[in-house]
Amino acid sequence: RELRKPERPGYVETGDDTIHPIQHVGNVPFGEEGNQTYIKNVLHVPTIMKNLVSIGQIMEKGMQV
Question: Which residues contact 1 (CB under 8 A, 6 or more apart)?
Fold first, then answer.
């Protein structure tokens, strides 16, 4: 939701020292329908093929993991 270009260029570096450019930033709905919250400022990095989630950020939202 609310997908936008990043304010300035940025990159994500993975464990194999590969650098991946951030293409977009947005908000992602999380949880069951009717009881959703949003994880804000999620990075869209299309060259990373797996979804990476910060457990700490989810717990800060009051959710259980």
Answer: 26, 27, 28, 29, 38
